[in-house]
Amino acid sequence: MAEREGIIYRINGPVIEARRVIGIYMGDMVEVGNERLIAETISLEDDRATIQVYEDTSGLQPGEMVYGTGLPLAVELGPGLMSQTFDGIQRPLELIQEKAGSFIQRGVKVPALDREKKWHFKPIAKVNDEAEANTILGTVQETELIEHRILVPPDVKGRITHVAEEGEYTIEDTIAKVMTKNDERELPMYHQWPVRAKRSSVGRLNPSIPLLTGQRVLDFLFPLARGGVAAIPGGFGTGKTMLQHSLAKWCNAEIIIYIGCGERGNEMTQVLEEFPELIDPNSDHPLMERTILIANTSNMPVTARESSIYTGITIGEYYRDMGYHVAIMADSTSRWAEALREISGRLEEMPAEEGYPAYLASRLAEFYERAGRFRLDKDREASLSLVGAVSPPGGDFSEPVTQHTRRFIRCFWGLDSELAGARHFPAISWTDSYSEYISDIAEWWDENFETSWSKLRTDIMEILQDEQRLQQVVKLVGPDALPDAQRLTLETARLIKEAFLQQSALSEEDAYCSAGKQLGMANIIMHFHERAIGIIERGAPIFTITELDIVQDIMRMKTRIPNDNLDEFDTLMEGINYQMDVLEEKYR
Amino acid sequence: MQGKEYIGLSHVSGPIIVVEGITGVGFDEMVEVTDPTGEVRIGRVLEISEDLAVIQVFGGTRGLAISSTRVRFVGRPLELEVSRDMIGRVFNGLGEPIDGIPKPFATQRMNINGVPINPTSREYPRDFIQTGISTIDCLNTLVRGQKLPIFSGSGMPHNLLARQIVRQAKLVGGEENEEFVVVFAAMGIKHDDAEFFRRGFEETGALNNVVMFLNLADDPSIERLITPRCALTVAEYLAFYEGIHVLVILTDMTNYAEALREIASAREEVPSRKGYPGYMYSDLASLYERTGRIQGATGSVTQLPILSMPNDDINHPIPDLTGYITEGQIVLSREINSKGIYPPVNVPRSLSRLMKDGIGENKTRPDHPNLQSQLYAAYANVQSVRSLASVIGEEELSEIDRNYLQFGEHFEQEFIGQKPDEDRSIEETLDIGWQVLSYLPETELHRVSEDEIAQFYVSASS
Predict the structure, then answer these.
(1) B227 exposure class (CB count in 10 Å sphere: 0-12, 13-18, 19+)
(2) What ipTM, to 2 d.p.?
(3) Of the candidates B47, B115, B373, which has its C-beta nearest A104's C-beta?
(4) Closest Cα of chain B to A59: distance in Å?
């Protein structure tokens, strides 16, 4: 027998047991059977190995061989990642389509990165420079938008002895040599990195710059910071995926990695069709130029679903190490947790809550802790933000995945099925949701805008909370029994909900809302409210306020006022003042 | 004869048998089990180790003997022989003909488990299918290549609704000579229900365009695990090899999930919610995801699974997991049903995720997107006004709230309600939508544009 081998003894779905195993490590990537299916070792005992297979195991027979590779399950990191669609183990789906047709047959071997393509390499590092993890050797223009910085792999440290001249190279060509303690290492343009190990995370900074998403309810009420972590839990039909798509489209990160983990095939196709057409408002380039998709749909092997999350985040960390602000959308982490549960069940492990394995919480923690804002060197900063969708069974937030996720995130965007039923989108509940970044990022708003974001935010939240309380009363006695001042609160809350919080992802004008426009809109509503209080105090009945023409204008400002013409808010403001002045005159 | 045959079992329990001393058998392989009387049943290898195979027998294990049962391993996974000639035929739950005519000549053999479609090869579904039912066409639009289940409960007219959809579904503005076929898979439904569908297809002359797979309530329950897979295999063949547009009706998915649970508990697996196996999501996805369109292929597979929610509970694992996989759901409401309104669609809970790209200008009508959003919002408000009215009485309501109550009545009676044979065009449906909106004052309509109000809105009070 050769060095790294074993014989299949038992097959139970995607989990197999091999015996008489030699030279296979824990976490080792192995190839299984005559078709050499991709797999990973997940436990070892004496000469027995338990292996999870990333492809369909139908037809596999006991007695076939398993072959160790001596390497952990890893991803290839180098030029050619951008704009690609990969499956959960980083196989390029477009190339698989070319090779195997419209259906994903197993055993198709295609390298993740194109070996033939020539890239134009421009050197930066010089001979005799010191090289360590993430030193930039040179650059390659990966897409029109993204400059790919060729990095020294994290495990190499030494003195540079050779750098290639500017020119065309494939990713396998040596572009630099580094003299390490032991030997001289030849560095090609790509390297491999095990998916389950985090890349370095030194120089953590406090996340204090907002990750603007263009969604008013998020940016204004429950903001996420660059390098922050957020979860979007919601039952089916509450709009998790629509919201994740909106984030991927409009948030102001430089790189987006969208992980479709155990979700619908048609949704991934939608992203694939839509993103090349859409223009990023921050860079004026097609969104696809900054996006990488990981697509492991619900009918693809469950084991690859488990690894898809790691594949995505490892690629994200790689771009972070180049100095980019990266945002990862994972839709949905519940499917990943269920994959863990399914594999754990096949291993006959003792289950904890609802059949999930006891290590669910620690796996979630490991995942979310890979996010953060980092200082790379004295003038470069980068961040990795994570937004994970959670699909709680029955929309019940007390289930284990939502509960454990809550422990490790700082921004909770709870989706509400009642709002979704009324087609109030994004259906983010303002009572369940919270953000712990508010005080951290207030400074950024103050530095960039004159109007106070913190004050407007507090005022809006107060009105929404008052409304909640008043609605309890209304349910018992009807709105007419309330004093006019309280009915004004209800009216303003209605304006906040319909004119501000509701945002149509399908409307061209409203799908993305700039920070300036958000402030303008909030300011208008609160100004309307304050003027109205004054008039109500003079004894004017509530209907004089609700019947003002300007209310309709406020209702329609989100689609009428474009992001790049904020002066129109002044006109609207004048309109409010004029109509209020007239009323005031009447009740003097 | 292909494959290896072994005599004797080492263990029989529930739907599962164990055979020892085997070699050269693959995982997921098809098995033929011959009982002492010579009757052959089909099975599948669930788990295999060096000398032992665990087999699930679809025909049930009654009558099997430990010593004299013969087990033959076929050497390939479960396959179905498919061909165009299957159209117009009736099969049992395992795909064998039961209409007294010989087996159709096979063009191809296909693995019934199917192979996942590469997401990059899919074509996003955006062709509007007109069902002639207002609540579906306007509020929960069905498009070609979508999977849209009906969540129902016992005693509600889901069968009538499904039959109406099958009869009336058509592509507006589609090409003349497009072929349209229904694949109908019954899992554990009553004889009456199966007969109801068969008669319905017959009356409209649609029977010649239907492939039926029948596993009825008194057929072996484990067979139900195979029935939808056979149906979808035929559907995929017809759609992607023959260029036909296929509508697949799977009923009742609850019976399927129960068969899944039966196998899981027979194997003593660790259960997750309500005793259903932890892999039920993946398993259901392996059925529902076999829907869609593929670039370069003319045909399409559209799925309309029907499931009855146990105890009308939408949070029960079966509807819950289904809702997470499918592209929306049509939920039926017992409350609306008891008002005598057909189809009793629960509007706030129903949803079609793919409608946004299938409606609007050049597809249905430009006012459709805003109109449906307005109807949803207004009807949601009706619910809260109704609960208020039940506390303080209708007389105490404000003028506007009374308008909403009026709107609610007309919406339910005229928009939701229609006859089981009433085929409304999309224009008719949208016009009725505007008609019922006329009971609300213009100032309440925030979701529709000013132009649309000018064009379509007529106030009832004026």
Answers:
(1) buried
(2) 0.87
(3) B115
(4) 4
Q: A161 is written with which tokens?
A: 């002895």
d(CA B303, CA B313): 22
- Flag whether B362 is in a domain: no
- Domain tally, chain A: 4
Shared-domain flag, residues A235 and A318: yes
Closest Cβ–Cβ partner in B48, B377, B398 for A10:
B48
Domain that holds residue A24: 5-72
Domain shared by A185 and A227, yes or no: no
Kindly state whether residues B113 and B245 are assigned to the same domain.
yes
pLDDT per residue over B225-271, tens digit each?
Answer: 999 999 999 999 999 999 999 999 999 899 999 999 998 888 888 88
> What is the distance in angstroms between the Cα of B205 and the nearest Cα belonging to chain A?
33
**Six-digit token string for A505:** 């992802």
Same domain membership, residue B87 and residue B68: no
A110, part of any domain: no
Q: Does one domain contain both B50 and B120?
A: no
Phi, psi at residue B123, to the nearest 5°? Answer: -115, 130
Give residues with Cβ within 8 angstroms of B359, minimum separation 6: B128, B141, B368, B369, B372
Could you tell me if residue A197 is inside a domain?
no
Q: Residues 6 or more apart from B232 whose CB is under 8 A from it?
A: B114, B183, B248, B287, B290, B301
- Cα-flanking dihedrals φ and ψ of residue A325, to 5°? -90, 115
Nearest-angstrom CA–CA distance, B225 and A552: 56
Residue span of the structural domain in which B386 resides? 368-456
Q: Please check whether residue B286 lies inside any domain of the structure.
A: yes
Q: Does residue A395 form part of some domain?
A: yes
From the list A102, A262, A391, the residue facing B118 with the nearest CB is A102
Token pair listed for A580: 């209020």
DSSP bridge partners of B461? none
Interface test with A, best of B111, B241, B282, B302 (most A CBs within 10 A): B282
On whether both B169 and B181 belong to a single domain, the answer is yes
Q: Give the DSSP per-residue string, A106-164.
A: TT----SS-SS--EEEEE-S-TT-EE-TT-EEEEEE-SSS-EEEEE--TT--EEEEEEP
**B375-409 tens-digit pLDDT:** 999 999 999 899 888 888 888 888 889 999 999 99
**Cβ contacts of A273 within 8 Å, gap of 6 or more:** B124
Give yes or no: residues B344 and B444 share one domain: no
Please check whether residue B446 lies inside any domain of the structure.
yes
Rounded distance, CA B430 to CA B427, Å? 5
